[in-house]
Design brief:
Keywords: Membrane, Transmembrane, Transmembrane helix. This protein folds into 2 domains: 155 residues, no CATH class; 214 residues, no CATH class. It is 64% helix and 5% strand. The chain has 15 helices and 7 strands. The strands form 2 sheets. The chain has a 4-stranded antiparallel beta sheet. The longest helix has 30 residues. It starts with a helix and ends with a helix.
Length: 426
């Protein structure tokens, strides 16, 4: 009976694994479907606003062009606005994050079809990638119309979509295949680079980035509570469609605001137009567009209680020091310092990427510079880690070794023997 149940549970027409592959057309349609899925994230609210809007001169085709423009902008594609072709390069990072997650999931599903050899190994993922770019080409073609709200720059936009799609699908493939192609171990002497140092750097860097983002979120939340974003939205919004449109725009730019707040807390601040700057050491602002999130900027004033924002990176660096100190209980002080310095150096890459992604332009002239300066944002992170995390890791390592907690069997045995001898002597 058990054998019969197993046979009935199997497919009637079972094919060998080498033949269990879909056609090229099916893979191409899978890429198209993935692009349409990410496109629907923009299309649903935009068409909903178009239905609620009382303006009669906007057609469904105009709404569709706006959807394609926002979709391209979410991929980091540079666009232009109006008859003067004013640059618009600030990417709504919430839309970018959702797109990256959907692409990664699609790549993960394709991982089981990438286990062959040679061209067969990559035929299915590359075909899915081509299908995604096919929809991107259609979006670019729609936005090249001069009547479009956001004008496309064909080559630059296709390159931006291709890079994000390759990164998302590639990450999904990499994770679905069991994370192969790991970075080789650095050929450093063991006196400076102990065993397990690479994993410790990865954990410490992840802890730093998460803690810094949480600190930026706290600074951003305080700015929302003390600012006048709600009053400004009430002044600008004249109906249900206007309110919902402002809410949608603000939600899409919340991750940008978190990174701006993190840059503010790090001390380097961020640019608010050409010649304008916002930072805890002082703020100078010029005229800015009427937008609720821009009302959260601090007023022109010198350093005062705004310096309290620097507690966010201080807490994040302290958390990183605790992670490194816990991992360094079996290391020497030299090895601990080397790993902490490597963590500070590794933070420059994500800092450059985040600073570049969070900023951009919203128009010509003054509004051509918005957001943190990437190299300043990256160097500030490394400076905080070197100034706080490195000595903090050494101090925490010394404290754990002194207490004998988490210091490995050798140190614990020595501390235990010492305590036993003291008790017998007493």
């Amino acid at each position: 009976m058990r054998t019969m149940t197993q046979l009935m549970g199997r497919p009637i027409l079972g094919l060998p694994s080498d033949l269990d592959s879909r056609s090229t057309l099916t893979d191409l349609l899978t890429g198209v479907r993935t692009a349409l899925l990410t496109l629907s994230v923009v299309a649903a609210p935009v068409f909903g606003l178009w239905v609620l809007a009382p303006y009669g001169d906007d057609t469904a085709q105009d709404a569709a062009r706006a959807v394609f423009g926002l979709w391209l902008l979410g991929h980091g594609a540079p666009l232009a606005r109006g008859p003067q072709d004013a640059p618009v390069t600030v990417a709504p990072l919430l839309l970018t994050a959702v797109t990256a997650v959907l692409l990664s999931r699609a790549g993960h599903r394709q991982a089981r079809r990438a286990r062959g050899r040679g061209w067969v190994r990559w035929r299915s993922p590359l075909t899915v990638y081509a299908g995604y770019l096919l929809v991107a080409a259609l979006a670019v073609a729609q936005c090249t119309d001069p009547r479009a709200l956001l004008h496309s720059r064909a080559v630059a936009d296709l390159v931006a979509v291709a890079l994000l799609a390759a990164a998302g699908l590639g990450h999904g493939l990499w994770s679905g295949l069991g994370r192969p192609w790991a970075l080789p171990r650095l050929p450093l002497p063991s006196a400076y680079w102990p065993d397990g140092a690479g994993a410790a750097v990865g954990r410490a860097l992840a802890g730093w980035l998460l803690a810094l983002t949480a600190g930026g979120g706290a600074v951003f939340a305080v700015a929302v509570l003390l600012g006048s974003a709600g009053q400004d939205a009430q002044r600008l919004g004249g109906g249900a469609a206007d309110w919902l449109g402002l809410l949608l725009a603000c939600l899409l730019l919340v991750p940008n605001g978190l990174l701006w707040a993190a840059s503010y807390a790090l001390g380097v601040g961020f640019a608010v137009g050409t010649g304008g700057h916002a930072g805890p050491l002082g703020t100078r602002l010029g005229p800015v567009p009427d937008f609720p999130l821009l009302t959260l900027l601090p007023a022109d004033r010198g350093p005062d209680w705004h310096l309290l924002a620097c507690a966010a990176p201080l807490a994040a660096a302290t958390a990183t020091a605790l992670l490194l100190g816990r991992a360094a209980t079996r290391w020497t002080p030299t090895q601990t310092a080397a790993v902490a310095a490597a963590t500070a150096l590794a933070a420059t890459g994500p800092g450059l990427l985040a600073g570049y992604a969070a900023g951009g332009a919203l128009g010509p002239g003054r509004m051509s510079e918005l957001g943190p300066v990437p190299w300043q944002f990256a160097l500030a992170q490394s400076a905080w880690l070197l100034a706080v995390a490195l000595p903090g890791a050494l101090l925490h390592r010394w404290w754990l070794g002194r207490r004998g907690d988490g210091a490995g069997p050798v140190v614990r045995a020595r501390v235990g023997a010492y305590r036993l001898v003291c008790r017998l002597a007493a």
